[in-house]
Write a structure and sequence with these properties.
CATH topology of the largest domain: Glycerol-3-phosphate (1)-acyltransferase
Number of strands: 17
GO molecular function, one term: glycerol-3-phosphate O-acyltransferase activity
Number of domains: 3
Family: Belongs to the GPAT/DAPAT family.
Protein name: Glyceronephosphate O-acyltransferase
Keywords: Acyltransferase, Membrane, Transferase
Main location: membrane
Helix content: 40-55%
Length: 646
């Protein structure tokens, strides 16, 4: 490896990136009539000024499309039934799936959500420059909105913002779970939601109806299409590995030359306090997720008495699919087969879509706004793991939070820390907002851990979900710090090898772009050199005198995950065979036993998300084999696990 070059320094310097300012959209709502707002004149700019077609016309276009007609003919031959019967089945699928966007329902939601948002949140801050870019993109090209997904509130919030700023309302991909909510499910449909199954299996007809429906809405500029790249809400506040199915579908019209370009707009939604905070922690501890229902929604009204702080929503730069595909994809391959014949994407296309998905999730991460509590959660979790039973003095907590604030800014974090307010007041305000997770006594602060095991697990996993919001800022330097800690010498090549192994092992855990190991290593080196932690020459990596504190912090960032992977590996090595269904309950029982005997430092290893990611990594690394039968079964190779450093 050559020393980091000046060009690389420019690429990696996140401080050079200028971000837009925010405006609080609730300020006007607090000073004017909600009814007048809901009934306002709504005249959004549309794609090339077109008049959108009616919902019934949209359905007819789908049912009469050449691609669906081809699949209907195939399915009718395979099943030995008439084309009319299969067409009827396709129409029923479409009827179950389709949105019925109605402005009257949108106005009702606008009025209701104004009341709710003003009660729950202190502010909803938007980068208005991003909305101006979005408006221009909607006029010029079909648009796909890609919000981060941390709460049920996300898609309601997106539509509320677009209505407020007179932008075209999106049609939103939603899971079938919401259809069980009776009246609410239909109201969501009439506010732009279209409902899809969680999995299609080998149902060719369902896939054809779904893909044609999405592509026709997109190509005709009916409305911006909105979906969550991660596929589901993240229970841990870490970004999830992107799902590629819908992204493949929305890129298809450009790849086949049916539109000139498509704009992909990453949107980052940051909550100071998450509504589902308690729910997520319980799910990670094995408590079943409650089924979505209207009665459950009404029971949740008690949240209206709580304070959830602020929300920041950042609309990122529109990403051109044409620019992404330039020099990456040879589109002439699509001229060899009639467009109406469905084909599996080539390896080239799959690789392109996968790389694009990771790039878009990284864009979401970079524009997530971190609040002071995120830094406090880091400090408090590390103190808890160190078993400081007396808690941390408020002054010491403030000093450590300020040190971490400065470090995260040097690493390019998008931090919302009010510099005009004394740090002690910022810390006190954050502790007050999250008072359900902390206890303050005689000027000392600690996590509110009560007797028993699962309640501390609940508090720690809740706290970890806030810490996790900043992991994208620290993950590359943390991987390098851990590599330095585990390498046998300070030789650069040996440290790189250790970094490469750790990065590969944690590729299910964090958003680490495929094929970017060298780039990530260089980025981590640059950040640690820039902050005076390391000195790096052609052959060696040297720790500076002042760098030990930073390296100790960065190493501790990965420690809970390393311990989690190690304990899962240890558990599997003691098993003769295990089905997929048995894995989570059995490993949780094993972990609880070791926590009670004090053999494990980190209660976070109780997280079912971490356990699943560890298993996926062990399978990918070849330490565990997944055997398909009536139930998947796992065979463990202890010697292979040891060879892999586990």
């Amino acid at each position: 490896f050559q020393p980091v070059t000046p060009v690389v320094l420019l690429i990696f310097n996140p401080m050079l990136k200028k971000r837009d300012d925010f405006e609080d959209m609730l300020e006007e709502r607090r000073n004017s009539s909600d009814l007048r707002y809901a009934l306002k004149c709504y005249t959004p700019v549309l794609y090339k000024g077109l008049t959108p077609c009616k919902v019934s016309e949209l359905k007819q276009m789908v049912l009469q499309s050449d691609q669906l007609g081809y699949v209907i003919t195939q399915v009718s031959k395979e099943k030995g039934v008439t084309s009319d019967e299969v067409t009827g089945e396709a129409a029923a699928i479409l009827e179950e799936m389709a949105q019925r966007l109605q402005l009257s329902t949108v106005r009702f939601f606008a009025f209701t959500l104004s009341k709710v948002f003003k009660t729950l949140f202190r502010s909803i801050c938007i980068n208005e420059e991003g909305l101006q870019r979005l408006q221009q993109a909607i006029h010029n090209h079909p648009v796909v909105l890609l919000p981060s997904h941390r709460s049920y509130m996300d898609f309601l919030l997106m539509s509320y913002i677009l209505y407020t700023y007179d932008l075209a309302l999106p049609v939103i991909a939603a899971g079938m779970d919401f259809m069980g909510m009776k009246v609410v499910g239909e109201m969501l449909r009439m506010s732009g939601a279209f409902f899809i199954r969680r999995s299609f299996g080998g149902d060719k007809l369902y896939w054809a109806v779904f893909s044609e429906y999405v592509k026709i809405m997109l190509k005709n500029g009916y409305a911006p299409v909105e979906f969550f790249l991660e596929g589901t809400r993240s229970r841990t506040a870490k970004s999830l590995t992107p799902k590629l199915g819908l992204l493949n579908i929305v890129m298809d019209p450009f790849l086949k030359g049916e539109v000139f370009d498509i704009s992909l707009v990453p949107v980052s939604i940051s909550y100071e306090r998450t509504l589902e905070e308690a729910l997520y922690a319980r799910e990670l501890l094995g408590v079943p997720k409650p089924k979505e229902s209207t009665s459950g929604l009404f029971k949740a009204r008690k949240i209206l008495s709580e304070d959830y702080g602020s929300i920041h929503v950042y609309f990122g730069q529109p990403v051109s699919v044409r620019s992404l595909a330039e020099s990456r994809v040879n589109r002439s391959q699509f001229n060899l087969i009639p467009r109406h014949i469905p084909t599996r994407p080539s390896e080239e296309i799959l690789s392109f879509v996968n790389d694009s998905a990771y790039r878009l999730v990284r864009a979401q991460e970079e524009n997530m706004v971190l609040k002071p509590w995120v830094l406090l959660a880091f400090v408090l979790l590390q103190k808890q793991a160190a078993e400081e039973k007396q808690g941390t003095a408020l002054d010491e907590l403030t000093e450590q939070a300020v040190w971490l604030r400065d470090l995260s800014r040097q690493y390019g974090a998008f931090l919302h820390w009010p510099d005009h307010i004394p740090p002690s007041e910022v810390v006190s305000s954050s502790l007050s907002l999250h008072r359900g997770l902390v206890r303050i006594s005689e000027g000392r602060v600690q996590l509110a851990l009560e007797q028993g095991l699962l309640y501390p697990g609940f508090v720690i996993l809740s706290c970890a979900s806030y810490r996790n919001q900043a992991l994208n800022v620290f993950i590359r330097p943390a991987l390098l710090a851990s590599a330095i800690h585990t390498a046998a010498s300070n030789r650069k090549q040996e440290i790189y090898n250790s970094f490469s192994f750790l990065r590969n092992m944690f590729s299910n855990e964090f958003i680490l772009c495929p094929g970017a190991t060298v780039q990530d290593f260089e980025e981590a080196c640059y950040l640690l050199v820039k902050t005076g932690t390391l000195q790096i020459n052609q052959q060696e990596v040297l720790i500076t005198e002042r760098g030990h504190r930073t390296l100790a912090f960065l190493t501790s960032v990965l420690d809970p995950f390393l311990q989690g992977y190690q304990v899962v590996c240890r558990f599997l090595c003691e098993q003769d065979g295990l089905t997929e269904k048995q894995f989570i309950p059995a490993v949780r029982k094993f972990i609880i036993k070791h926590l009670l005997t004090g053999r494990l430092r980190y209660t976070e290893v109780l997280s079912s998300d971490l356990q699943k990611n560890a298993l996926a990594a062990l399978i990918r690394l070849g330490a565990v084999q997944k055997i398909k039968g009536n139930n998947y079964c796992f065979n463990v190779f202890p010697s292979e696990a040891r060879n892999r450093g586990l």
